[in-house]
Amino acid sequence: MAPTSTTLAAMQAEATELGSRVNNAPSKDEALGLAIQAAQLCMKALKLATSPEQKSELKSKCQLLLNQAEEIKTTPTWRPLPQLSSLSLDTHGTSVSGTSGSPSIPASNVRKLVEPVSTRDLSKKEQLLVLRASMLNDFKFKPWKGPPDPSEFAAARPSAKPFRDNHDLILSPHQMESFDGWKHAVDALPPPTLFPGDRRLLGPMMHTNRSIDLVQDAAADCSVVASLCAGTARVGKGHQKLLGDILFPYDTKKSRPMLSQNGKYIAKLYFNGCYRQVEIDDRLPVSKTQRMLHVFDRKNPALLWPALIEKAYLKVRGGYVFPGSNPSTDLLILTGWIPEHVFLQDDSTGPQALWKRIFNAFQYGDVFVTMGTGHMSSRVERELGLAGQHAYAVLDMKEEDDQKLFLLKNPWCEGTSWRGSLPRSSSSRVNSPGPNVEFRSEDGTSTPSSMLGVFPRPQEQYAPGIFWIDLNSVLQHFESIYLNWNPGLFTHRQDIHFAWNLTDQEKRGSPGCFINHPQFALTCKAGGPVWLLLCRHFQSTTQVTDDLVQLQETMKSDLAGHISIYVYDRNGQHVYISEGFLERGPYVDSPQTLLRIDVPANTTYTVVISEQDLASTSHTFTLSAFASATLDLSPARDKYLYQSSVKSSWTSTTAGGNATVPSYHTNPQFSLTVPIRTSLVLLLETLSPDLHVHVKLIHGRGQRVASIKRRDILLESGDYRRMSAIAEIDNVEPGVYTIICSTFEAGQIADFTLRIDSIIQTAIKQLPPEYAGRLPLKLSDAFFNPSCKKVAAPLHPSRMVRLMVIAKFIRAPAAPGTPVELGSRSPLRVSIELGRGPDRRFLMTSSHGEYSDAEAGVRTEDVDLWPAYLQEGEMWLVLDRLAGPATGEERCRVELFCDGVLGDDLKVGVWRDWDD
Asked: Which InterPro entries does the record match to this protein (predicted)?
């Protein structure tokens, strides 16, 4: 049996190894051979498999490999896919000779990547969530069902009015200063202020044989225009055209967008959980000045499609009053490509590794690269030729000798160029102003060698705002690099949609406590790199047309807050607190964040969504997982089937502090009844940000406890933790236990919630305060002189009274001006006795008759005192110390907690020395 098991395991391992090499094979024939070999091994292993689980897994794997082999057969061209890792995304392939070490990849060598589609069945709740997310800013954006029928763009009749949206998009106050009205494309392009007079021979166009040079002017959407520039540059390098998947109507034969007959256009954009249909009319905001209110092409002022895509995007984001974004968000919406935000000032960002990650992928056209600056002073802006808090498009990347260079474009129409240190050996020519650089348009035009991997010759110069800059200068003066990866780099994808109600602080929970956070189980059976993309859905913005400044601020506040992703090795089970994570993404203020992880085979992780300062409303999200192997993404599982909780407070009389404080016993206490053996979790949570809290489970028989020994403690939460504390235990025996909830400092007043999760149903009940229903009766202090070991005071009840006694030493000086050390207290015992001498009877003693020097003092349990006891002899309250200090005296403070009235129901005499 053992040899068969070994052979089976070896076959499975070899099949997995062969299968992992398929996508990276250098040729189509080799890829096909690897897939077939791996499938044959799976078939052989299937004959040896004995368990249903093994057989099912091998069948699935074999079918996947056969499907992959069939796909390879039908692939007209072949290129190896990138190898992915959790730390990098490197692309590998045969480089076509370029210049200065920069590969240029002819389009004929590039295999088209197919975007994976989530195969997970959505629950009805998720389906409703996606449908409700269609309503945004008084528009309805239906989920994408496929390319629209050409009839949607046909004119109903020659005299029919052009298609028109139900309301216009809003412009900012700054834009309104130049606004001359909404005009159809035929009257808007080319811009009337640039081409005044007779317009009979003028009008919009959808393609051009000239280069494309997109710029922004009076709009605040530099990130959008930078995104469009990055897209045109990618097509200009000969890569797959994207407009055919974005804007309709589209002429598939000529590979270019078409003018709509009825003025209606439809864009396919990705937001709020899926690709959606965005309908727009062809009217554009026209300026009465030289300032342009929409994106335009400096070389081709009549080119329409950039303005249409911009309008569709801004319709989703609330209008031309749009306060700004970052290019990775914009390109996700425009293309669906996976966004990644690289923080250049992060110590973990390695320049060489970063360049290696993106350089080859950029040459293959598998990544968009854009950049953003941080805040800069006006002086620094002038000195460097850069704009602060601004987005730039990366048009090209080059390696020359040991230099790593980016070709950047500032999308402003009057954009400045880099004035810092220039690349060596090219500094005299690469950044000087001159004729525009050539870009290939979507319909296909010639592309100069400068865009195919060759540095510009001395006579070749760039348009204003386009410049080369080296990697070191980017790291020094830019804040972020934004990457958008082709989702076709992955073969599998799973999406899950969810809502998170943050309408009040209690539902939000305390920082670091994750019990109310959305959580999910993630499994990748074959293991390998998995990318997790969290997208926060956009919410509607109230259209306040009479206060546009307020509207813009409202839009900014709706986008405020930060989100992050945590990953735990918890087998897909719920996580309670933030500690102990395997991986954690940064908290970002973007609508999306990405976390890359390596998942071992047959391992299930728990993924937790976290937030900071999101608006107090109900938010909706989509979590997407990408991998090169089969994925499973589902809601996290509850290890514990039952939850019970109780709300309580630390008050001025119950905030006892930590266990070293004498008043610890006054903290809120609870009884916990466990009917049968179980595992459970105690979770203590408060919303007071300055409190550090602790929870303890003890053998207390469900009663209040005043003093605790180490052996009494069954479970505790460890160090005091800010705002929340957790303690988890397996196999708790049946019984009734006592729970104590405390803050670190005494006197800290706050509300809290104690939650118990367990495998079986338990019962929790708050115990009455220690002095509930009783009056505290403070006696005069008792003194022990150096020769005295016992003092007593007579008791005389006139009716039955219930009594508890607390006695503790006071830190009185042992000699004038000299404090007694904490550890010098004598062990003490308090008792209530009938009679004197060897025949006396103890009615109650503290600590079961043992002596204690605890700082909290000693105390008795409750005892009922009846007048009839006095018939047996005198009744005494006795304080007994085990030994006295060498010098000085000790003073003891005594309090009685009685349900009667001192002097009427119970009389207490004066202290006196006592000898047995």
From this structure: Calpain_III, Calpain_III_sf, MIT_dom_sf, PalB/RIM13, Papain-like_cys_pep_sf, Peptidase_C2_calpain_cat
